[in-house]
């Protein structure tokens, strides 16, 4: 793709987002065909959204499990951006009218405490973990907007993998001393259990994907910085929420997070 096609594709995505139209990128002449082209389109699209949303707060990681990768034909996880104005603290009430189809995924948020400059790459687990601060239980807010054509990895990346924000629980500092992989995570909708998982469902440990994203960003000339928040992948399949319901996720060692949809 030429720079002009990448720019046009990202701008068209932004206009479709604003108008709540179906995303048409994969059926247009500007459809990305490679992973790198898809991330380039995502950059244009999300930079336009960030101008209205106070900038960026961090990243989201998706498809961290082999099951999800196989379902879409992905060879590795993918990442998207998180906008500053879409980060909330639990408990929170959000308006369903602000989304096309609001849903949640149950994740762990990781707070970056030290810059990870590109010059230090490639990163290993030890170097990445030294740059991390607290973690917290979190909801990822997703917005289920439709896209023309069959779901593909390039389409998912370009459209930011349905990411629409984060609801954060209380930060936990001593997570390295806790058995996070064995910790049970359970999702309740209006006090009824609708799903459960555990920390090991995300690459064996929900902090493990941080090494992947540090190296993936470095390969594209980007880097994690102090203050970034990264959500690392869902322990429970996504659930879409009707107006008037309350979603509550609880996890051993990490507490709870609550979201009410008005």
Description of the structure:
By secondary structure, this protein is α+β, with helices and mostly antiparallel strands. 23% of the residues lie in helices and 30% in strands. It contains six helices and 13 strands. It has helices at residues 3-19, 35-50, 66-72, 125-129, 153-158, 209-218, and strands at residues 56-62, 78-83, 87-89, 92-94, 102-112, 132-143, 163-168, 184-189, 192-198, 229-231, 239-240, 246-251, 255-261. Strands 1, 2, 3, 5, 6, 7, 10 and 11 form an eight-stranded mixed beta sheet that branches. It has a five-stranded mixed beta sheet with strand order 4-13-12-8-9, with no helix packed on it. Helix 1 (3-19) crosses helix 2 (35-50). The longest helix has 17 residues, at 3-19. The radius of gyration is 18 Å and the shape is globular.
């Amino acid at each position: 793709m030429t720079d002009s096609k990448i720019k046009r594709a990202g701008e068209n995505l932004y206009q479709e987002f604003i108008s709540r139209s179906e995303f048409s990128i994969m059926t247009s002449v500007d459809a990305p065909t490679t992973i790198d082209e898809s991330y380039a389109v995502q950059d244009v699209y999300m930079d336009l959204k960030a101008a209205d949303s106070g900038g960026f707060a961090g990243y989201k990681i998706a498809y961290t499990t082999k099951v999800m990768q196989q379902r879409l034909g992905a060879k590795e996880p993918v990442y998207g951006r998180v906008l500053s104005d879409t980060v909330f603290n639990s408990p929170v009430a959000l308006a369903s009218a602000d989304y096309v189809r609001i849903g949640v995924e149950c994740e762990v948020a990781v707070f970056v405490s030290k810059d990870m400059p590109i010059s230090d790459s490639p990163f290993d687990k030890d170097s990445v973990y030294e740059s991390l601060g607290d973690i917290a239980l979190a909801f990822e807010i997703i917005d289920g907007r439709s896209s023309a054509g069959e779901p593909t990895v390039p389409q998912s990346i370009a459209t930011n993998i349905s990411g629409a924000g984060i609801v954060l629980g209380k930060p936990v500092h001593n997570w390295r001393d806790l058995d996070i992989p064995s910790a049970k995570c359970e999702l309740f909708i209006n006090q009824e259990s609708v799903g459960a998982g555990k920390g090991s469902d995300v690459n064996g440990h929900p902090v493990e994907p941080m090494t992947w994203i540090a190296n993936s960003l470095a390969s594209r000339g980007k880097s994690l910085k102090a203050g970034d928040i990264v959500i690392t992948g869902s322990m429970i399949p996504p659930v879409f929420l009707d107006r008037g319901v309350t979603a509550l996720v609880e996890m051993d060692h990490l507490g709870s997070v609550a979201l009410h949809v008005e």
